[in-house]
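>> received
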Amino acid sequence: MVRFLLARPIAVFMTFLALMVFSFIVFRTLPISLLPPIDVPQIVVKVNYPNASPEAIEQNVLSTIREGLITLNGLEEMDSKAGSEVGTIRLTFDYSTKMELAYIDVNEKIDRITNALPEGLARPEVIRINTSDIPVARVQVVPKEGVDEIEVSLLAENVLKKRIEQLPGVSLVDINGKKERIITVEPKEEALRALGMTQQNIISAIQSGNSELPGISVKDGQFRYYLRLATRVDTPTDIESLPVAAASGAILPLGRLATVNYQSKEMLGYHLFGSKEALVITVHKQAAAKMNELMPELKAALELFKTDYPQVDFELTQDQSNLLNAAISNLQTSLLFGGLFAFGVLFLFMKDYRLPLIIGVSLPSSLLISFLVFYFFDISINIISLSGLALGIGMLIDNAIIVLDNITRKREAGLSLFEACVAGVDEVMSALVSSVLTTLSVFVPLVFLSGISGALFFDQAVAVAAILSVSLAVAFILLPMLYFLFFSKSQKLDDGREGPFFSAVLRLYEKGYSAVFAHRKIVLAVFTLLIPLGLGIGYLLGTTGLPEIEKLDATLEIDWNEPISALENRNRVIALMKSMEGNYEKAEADVGVRQFLLFDGENSIQQSLLYFLFSSVEEKNQHLPKIDFFLAANYPGANYTLGDAPNAFDQLFSSSLPYYEVRWKDLAQKKPVEEKKVDPWLSQFPTSEWERGPGLQKEASVVFTLKADRLATYQIPVEQVQEQLSRLFGSFTITDIRRFGEVTPIRLKESQERFEDLLKTTRINRSDSSSYILGEFVDYRYDDHYKYVTADKGGIYQSVLVTAEEPHALASDYIKWGADKNLGISMVGQYFKDRENIRQLIGILAISVLLLYFILAAQFESFIQPLIVVFTLPLGIGGAFLVLLLAGASLNVMSAIGLVVMLGIMVNDAILKIDTINRLRKEYVESPTVSAEAALEMALHKAGQIRLKPILMTSITTILALIPIIFSSGLGADLQRPLVYSVIGGLTIGTLTALYFVPLAYWFFVSKKKLKEA
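>> returned
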């Protein structure tokens, strides 16, 4: 094939050129995003039930929804959590489930059971989770001093949101912190009592004044007109002018009996920017959009907003494109330095400027053609796929160097230029194909990991397979063709003598080779001993998901652990912000219930999430402890978590599951076990290292009890007292004013007095116009009750979170503890997921090693020689572990990618070395004057000399290309540094392994059997 293609160099060159032009066109259409658009197999159903207790939400709403959703296809887990006024159900599906269909199915089932839910309850929200739901940026909208905040909310909802949604690439715009206008009616109790009237007179007058006659029309000759009542109200003035009839028959304007005003609706949550109230607009991108094009458009739009709406300040925060930009800049840096160092190293070793130029053409062309594979597999350019490309670049350079060196060697041996190109490629073709297949065999099976890890590895595996496959095509077709074209006019052959640099290196190698083979058994024993020692270093390394990045931002999650209002929550957060003022660059907070459509977490009035951005790591480390001090001094009962702000990776990999949770259900009844029983039971729990789960957390509450005997004595209906209490303490809506989609509620104004005082001052009327103090018929007491009611597929459960180092060690004791109390016990949590992932990973790696062995056995036609390649891998891994340990790095996703890069290059070198030994040995054995033993010694020695140059060039080029990242700073460098340590450590040891261990192991394992056959 190579001979056929080389005979038509112009045709091949033009074909590659056309392919690259087509690839460039395709590249410009590829979406650019932070992460692959992965369907996380979760759906969240959210319920808002104002003024309802956790028990009421569980009993009246969540239990009904769970029963309706239990038959969903592919449903693995279902967990619900009912809190005050809000409830959530989290549905987890199998990863093979098509989430588009599951989302439709959930909505259909919700529609079917809507009639079984309490009247007046808003339809439950159904939220589908996707990686593209992670906002790419947040826009802060801060009203200036004296500007009406409700007007700014309308501006954000009706104008800013629509303008941002029109930007190319934006899929959704979400808002938090909006304020709504309502009309409040505050009855004048003295005037009502003086006229013998009640609040009901005012309520009836307003409802009558806002009534409509929908669908009624009158005929007038040939015309038909629809009726509209002229008594409809629109403003507080209209309401105050409504007539109210007194018992005496007098007609009074409502304004004399009540005060009517526009007010801001009571907020269940706020957004703060710094210590100011604001709104936040989160921007979500389309899966097919390019983030690097979207962000400049968004920033340009913000500049226009600043000009168009001077009454509002705008600020862009939490820009997630920084991670992507860091990855792209690192790839560009690697390519730039890789090219420069490849040129320098090749010039030192090969003495000809045309060879680096050939690699300079092949490297970007391979990358560009790889993007064509992205297009056909529908893969975006993201951090995961880019890391796959970076992983393959080392192998790409390796293949190019090997092919060019082999062609040069054939030419120096006296072959013509054409024959040297053909023979040089043919000789290494099978070995290079095997090396690529072995690399893929190690990596591609990781796609079959369950969960989000396997979904992420798909993009990386396709990227690796693409660049390695393309690199083979480039090495076998483009490189020899370019070599042929570049050298066709130069008929002068090199004299074959090496330059002074490589000559010195060769002499050094010869000394080492002589020393190693003079003490073969001792050196082999040392190498063998290094394998367990190197792998043992892995136990000394810490393990993390992502490398520790020097983040300038931090988050604080607070649960005040008290039944406070959203306003009090806001005031506390503002006080905390002011205590930190001047210590941070930017800060924002989502206080209480969040209005985001896509928010799938807990919505609680008592919780807040704060975000701080600092100017430097030193400033961050200096000022963050002040938060601990402030909370400990002022709110010692608050539960809070202070740490680094999560990036998109953290948000993607974060799990809602606790690490290890012991759950129990009361087998005798379908409700939570009472506190008075649970507390003594928990004192007998098998371990003391535990904390209360959500279903055991308590909060203070007030319990009202109606005095039935007194109500009967005074002949006051129970419903009348209940209605009076709902008007007094709830948000009682009289009616709504509806204008073209805008709804303005008219509500009774809620009193700000203490409830004890209201019970003493509020009167309740009997049918004979006599009235009594409401407190005479109502008892109250303070009580602790469960803060949440938790349930799963099997019903209501309570739980404890075990914090012991080995939580599963007492599993049988947990079951026995529950059985003694008639409780059904189950253990769940991330602990079990992690164990399952580790089992899968071990199985997949075992399959990978077997595949690698089978491929090499086919390549070498030997069962022994592949073992030599396999035994080189632990030595490289040990070298990588050693450098990671010395550098203070951990085992994480990036260092693991570095290990795969390094192992790919090591396998490549070892395969080519063994392939060369086999070929030379066959040549020498065929000579009648050379004994079999001498043929083996000569083959080992000669193969070392032949492969020395490409092995050193590959290792030195790769290491030098990566070294600048170690001394760089910033997010990208922090992310890539563990990968660099792995590659440098592994290749340093791996180079020595390829040079000395491979021939030594070949002599030890293969020699005796082969000598007898010979």
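>> Residues 661-729+749-827 form one domain.
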